[in-house]
Known about the structure:
Chain A is mainly beta. Chain A has strands spanning 3-5, 10-14, 19-21, 24-26, 32-38, 44-50, 56-58, 64-68, 73-78, 87-95, 101-104, 108-113. Chain A has no helices and 12 strands.
Amino acid sequence: AQSVTQPDIHITVSEGASLELRCNYSYGATPYLFWYVQSPGQGLQLLLKYFSGDTLVQGIKGFEAEFKRSQSSFNLRKPSVHWSDAAEYFCALLGGDSSYKLIFGSGTRLLVRP
Amino acid sequence: EAGVAQSPRYKIIEKRQSVAFWCNPISGHATLYWYQQILGQGPKLLIQFQNNGVVDDSQLPKDRFSAERLKGVDSTLKIQPAKLEDSAVYLCASSLPGFGHNYEQYFGPGTRLTVT
C-alpha cells in the first residue's frame, strides 16, 4: 500500500534551535516526495521536492530534506528556526494506481517558543 | 502570476442543505485537483481533471458530491445534501500536465465548510 507517515503530531522548538520533522513512506518504486507548509487560513506552499539524483534537497526558507531509501524516510530539517516557521508541515508522496496523485501524511504542527 | 483562486473562503450551512465551491486555476494549467482536508488530517484527493475530463474520482462520494470543469478552465465542486462529516477545508490545486522535474501542484487558499 502507498502511504506516508508523520509520527509527530506536534513539535515545539525554541527560536534559533535546529529542527527535524520526520516522514516515512511506503511505496513500491522510487518515490517522488514533497514537503509542503500550511500557515493558518492559507493553502499549501511547496518547500522542496525529491525526484531523483542528489539525496539532499535544498528548498525555500532555509529548509532541506534528505532522502534515505534504506530507511524509507524523507526528513525535513532546518538549522535555525524562526518564529515565522510556526505552521503545519505535510510530507507527500506522488503515487496512485490509475493516475498519479499526491498522498499526504497527517501533518506535524510546529510551535516555536520565543 | 496570479495563483489559484477559490470562493467562497468560508461557508456555514445546515445538514441536508446544498453548497457549491468555485475554483479558478493558474492560467495554462491543464490539470486541476479538488482535495478535502478534515481537521487534523492531511488533504485527501477527491477528484482530478485533465482539461475537462475526469482522470481520478475514486475517492469522491458520488452519492452526494459532484464536480465539473466544463470548459477546461474553472471548476465547481458541489455537495448535496451535506452531512456533518463534510465539515472540512476544500482545497483546489492545479498543475501543468506531465511529471517531470518541474512538477508541482499549486494550491488555492481553500474554502472552510462548517455543516451544523
